[in-house]
Amino acid sequence: MVHDVNTGPKPPRDVELIATDADGVKLQVVTWKKHDVTVEWEVGATYPIRGGRAKRYIDASGPELRIHSNADFAVERVTPESDRLRLLVLGDTHVGYRHRPSNTKSPWAREVDNRQTFSRSLARARDLGVDAVVHAGDVFDHEITREDRDHVREEIRRTHDTGVPVYYIHGNHDNEAGNRTLRRGPGVHIGGETVVFGDDVVRLSGLDYGAGEFSSPPPERPGDNGESVSILVLHDTPYPVVDENESPIHRTDPNHLDLREFLDSADEWLDLIASGDLHVGSRASIAGYETPLIVTGPTAGISTSTQENNPSTWLVTVSGREVQVERQRLG
């Protein structure tokens, strides 16, 4: 439980807080700006922590035990189980990427094996005990082997067997061999479909890759007077997408999907968009509209534009009508 929060420590520290663990042991938690820990800290609240770097100080002032954030640090606020739904959102896992010729890859990506990061992503979902995994497309790369297909299906099966379903859409690199593997289950394809969680509490709609067009009709306003939360997952380059500083995230994709006409009506009731395809993960929005947007980015460092890609998964927590998004880096 948190007892004191300091949100203005000396940089590059981001937050310092005093807490007690489940055994009543007093400790200090320090998060660093470079780790982008976005959870909202509140005195009296409880936060399970994974990862981090623990140090024990014998003669230091303050708590003897201190935990510092690192690249694998993950934290979330505990809310009543009956009043929340948690989704682990990811995209562009590109299993099979290792088969691409080295001269087509950036220097930092030549030794990447995306099977490993796919496994780490789903292991995170199992460890967190989320209600579902949502994959925003490009599960596979365009050249895959039977080994790749078997690896993905086995990881999805392991996750499903722990009570965590996996929902996915098709991306532009997902070929027919990969799609056949996915259709064998137990993952659930939601391209052109809407999945309802709980007592119509959350509505999750999916759109497969459409090369700049809607691959199927986009979702419509729910007939519940805004009582449910609506989330749309797609795999296209959304246009005109801007980051948190309102700077364009892309400028050159001729197959971008213009979302403005859709959002002219959906901006009032749509709560979140999650988009795969772009390989730079970011919190974002469509310029001129309020609906928040997650550009998932890939789960491995395969971006051709920057080595500072910060591969991540995204924890989406729905509590009542509130939607919280936490970026969880894979390191």
Low-confidence residue ranges: none
Give the structural class: alpha/beta
Strand and helix order? EEEEEEEEHEHEHEEEEEEEHEEEEE
| Shape assignment | globular
Q: Briefly, what CATH class of the largest domain?
A: Alpha Beta
Radius of gyration: 20 Å
Number of domains: 2
* CATH superfamily descriptor of the largest domain: Metallo-dependent phosphatases
Measured distance between first and last alpha carbons? 26 Å
Largest sheet: 7 strands, mixed
CATH architectural group of the largest domain: 4-Layer Sandwich
Percent of residues in β-strands: 25-35%
Enumerate how many helices there are, as a single number: 4
Keywords: Exonuclease, Hydrolase, Nuclease
InterPro entries: Calcineurin-like_PHP, DNA_Repair-Maintenance_Comp, Metallo-depent_PP-like
GO molecular function: exonuclease activity
Protein name: Exonuclease SbcCD subunit D
Please write out the topology.
Elements: E1 2-6, E2 13-20, E3 26-32, E4 49-50, E5 53-56, E6 65-68, E7 74-75, E8 84-90, H1 114-128, E9 132-135, H2 146-161, E10 166-168, H3 176-183, E11 188-189, E12 194-197, E13 202-207, E14 229-235, E15 238-239, E16 241-243, E17 257-258, H4 260-266, E18 272-276, E19 282-286, E20 292-295, E21 312-319, E22 322-329
Parallel strand pairs: 3-6, 8-9, 9-10, 10-11, 13-14, 14-18, 15-17, 18-20
Antiparallel strand pairs: 1-2, 2-3, 4-7, 5-6, 8-21, 12-13, 16-19, 19-20, 21-22
Pfam families: Metallophos (PF00149)
Keywords: Exonuclease, Hydrolase, Nuclease
GO molecular function, one term: exonuclease activity
